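Need a sequence for this fold. Nothing fancy.
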């Protein structure tokens, strides 16, 4: 009885193992197929990028525009921290100071000439007033003692008296006209001198403004970032520059941006408004929150001669912590993590569970102990998993390897149970 029971139990165990083996086998397989269950859960798709910091807003530092050429007399070093009002550059003021001296000399000369002209005009007018007064007296005397009575004076004496009155009147009128003409002439001379004085004042004012403009001052707190020329060289003391030449800029470190590059193969889903995290290499413990501000329309090469294509992405960092502002400078290298897709409840499978058959995307689902290929529609993929939009349900068991292909024998083992070494 005991031997029979033992034999029955052995046969039952073998049968159970055979059933289990059949359920894990597929066409062409000589062993168990690795599998997994389809599940739902949160899905995040991120992409890593690298690039550099830049300022969202910056105040340019340009040479003043009153001269054709200027010479740099002093210049702050690249990266120097400055406060609002600090001098960041000075230009040679020799020619401007010469203009200022010439303007002051011209104004002094004009002031002297104006005083002299006024004195001469006053003296001339005073003399003409005396001439008029004298002519008036002569007129009054001639008229008072005019000989008119023909019974007393001869006709000749009467005529001479009339002539004397007319001459005196003419002298007074001439004195009045002379005074008026001299007064107009003096006023014209003074007007011309006033114009010369205003011209001198203008030259002085302009030269003074130019002197002030020859000192470039920081409009706000920040860092001096000098501009490199086409050879990659920075502006230097003694260099001659033209009017309006951009020496550099002072970025507003309170509002920064990051210019990063994303591989073309990883750029699917890049869009404006996506959240991002930025880490400046010089501040590894500080994570800055940002938002994708701009995405290039087409990819391009970063390095000439290297065919790898990248999308340029600008990430805005609207709120820079106060403690980080003094440490953040344009040009610093950054590492960025961009969020491309986020789903709270997504159906995902491992990437190796997806295969291509006759131009279709399929997975092998276990049904009634066999692996059956079924077409699926895929969504975004990330970190070894891919979203399944259609074709599977939660709880389905799918193969992680192609069950229709023969299993690869481990290294050192025989190809078949009956094979000999």
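Here you go.
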């Amino acid at each position: 009885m005991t031997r029979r029971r033992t034999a029955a139990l052995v046969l039952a165990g073998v049968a159970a193992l055979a059933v289990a083996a059949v359920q894990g086998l597929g066409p062409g397989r000589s062993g168990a197929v690795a599998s997994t269950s389809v599940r739902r859960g949160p899905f995040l798709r991120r992409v890593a990028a690298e690039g550099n910091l830049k300022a969202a807003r910056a105040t340019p530092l340009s040479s003043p525009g009153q001269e054709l050429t200027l010479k740099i007399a002093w210049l702050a070093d690249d990266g120097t921290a400055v406060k609002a009002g600090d001098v960041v550059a000075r230009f040679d003021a020799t020619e401007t100071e010469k203009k200022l001296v010439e303007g002051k000399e011209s104004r002094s000369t004009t002031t002297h000439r104006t005083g002299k002209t006024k004195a001469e005009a006053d003296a001339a007018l005073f003399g003409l007033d005396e001439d008029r007064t004298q002519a008036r007296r002569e007129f009054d005397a001639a008229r008072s003692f005019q000989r008119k009575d023909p019974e007393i004076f001869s006709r000749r004496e009467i005529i001479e008296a009339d002539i004397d009155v007319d001459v005196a009147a003419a002298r007074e009128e001439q004195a009045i006209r002379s005074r008026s003409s001299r007064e107009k002439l003096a006023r014209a001379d003074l007007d011309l001198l006033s114009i010369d004085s205003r011209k001198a004042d203008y030259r002085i004012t302009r030269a003074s403004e130019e002197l002030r403009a020859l000192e470039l001052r920081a409009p706000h707190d920040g860092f001096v970032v000098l501009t490199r020329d086409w050879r990659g060289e920075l502006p230097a003391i003694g260099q001659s520059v033209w009017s309006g030449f951009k020496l550099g800029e002072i970025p507003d470190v309170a509002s920064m941006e990051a210019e990063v590059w994303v591989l073309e193969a990883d750029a699917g889903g890049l869009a404006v408004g996506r959240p991002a995290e930025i880490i400046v290499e010089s501040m590894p413990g500080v994570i800055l929150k940002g938002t994708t501000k701009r995405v290039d329309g087409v990819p391009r090469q970063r390095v000439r001669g290297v065919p790898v294509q990248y999308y340029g992405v600008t990430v805005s960092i609207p709120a820079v912590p106060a403690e980080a502002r003094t440490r953040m400078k344009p040009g610093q290298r950054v590492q960025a993590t961009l969020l491309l897709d986020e789903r709270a409840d997504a159906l995902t499978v491992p990437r190796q569970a997806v295969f291509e058959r006759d131009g279709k995307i399929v997975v092998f689902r276990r049904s009634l102990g066999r692996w059956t290929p079924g077409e699926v529609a895929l969504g975004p993929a990330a970190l070894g998993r891919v979203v399944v939009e259609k074709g599977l349900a939660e709880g389905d068991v799918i193969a992680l390897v192609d069950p229709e292909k023969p299993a690869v024998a481990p290294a050192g083992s025989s190809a078949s149970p009956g094979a000999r070494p």
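For context: Residues 129 and 405 are 131 Å apart (CA to CA).
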